Amino acid sequence: MARLEYQSVDSEIADRIRERRGGQLTPLDQMLLHSPPIADGWNSLLGAIRTRAGLPADIRELAILRVAALNGADYEWNAHEPVAHRAGLTPEQTEGLRVDVVDPAATLTAPQRAALAYTDAMTRSVEVPDDVFKALHEHFDDRHIVELTATIGTYNLVSRFLVALHVGRPDEATEPDTLDENGAVA
Questions:
Q1: 57-71 vs 74-86: helix axis angle to the nearest 10?
Q2: Which domains, and CATH codes, for the chain?
Q3: Locate the Carboxymuconolactone decarboxylase-like domain: which residues (predicted)?
Q4: Distance between CA atoms of 157 and 167, rounded to whole angstroms?
Q5: Would you call 157 helix, strand, or coil by DSSP?
Q6: 3-class secondary-structure state, position 36
């Protein structure tokens, strides 16, 4: 059960969130609406990362799933796994992103492996070793590196918010999620 009550709010901010989401608020949105300014900023940031950035969708979703796996954010994983498949990751590749997999990079392409190593470094220890960054730079231009970095950082925020406040845990009944234009709830 969530640690705070979900908010069902009618406001301009909630309407902007609903617009990005395709009509309804998710449990994540309903938790964020405890602080309308945070909910509004969150909506803008996630909208930019999900719909206005040029990072290849498979790389974006790989990073999101890996962050969810590393941080134990099942709600986020469940929301993004189908999006990752639509973005071109195979079920074998997404399963390889789970933390209990011995060699998560075994089924990935070279750019995906570089993004995975970068995601792991940023999420596990924050500091990125030079060799990891150099390998990343072999596959991505500066804009994509900035967008990947922002995606990893943002989804660490998302996953830690979800886990800390028990948002969307399987032991609670919630309204069915409405997916955004990319088919994910966050």
A1: 160
A2: 57-164 (1.20.1290.10)
A3: 36-107
A4: 13
A5: helix
A6: helix
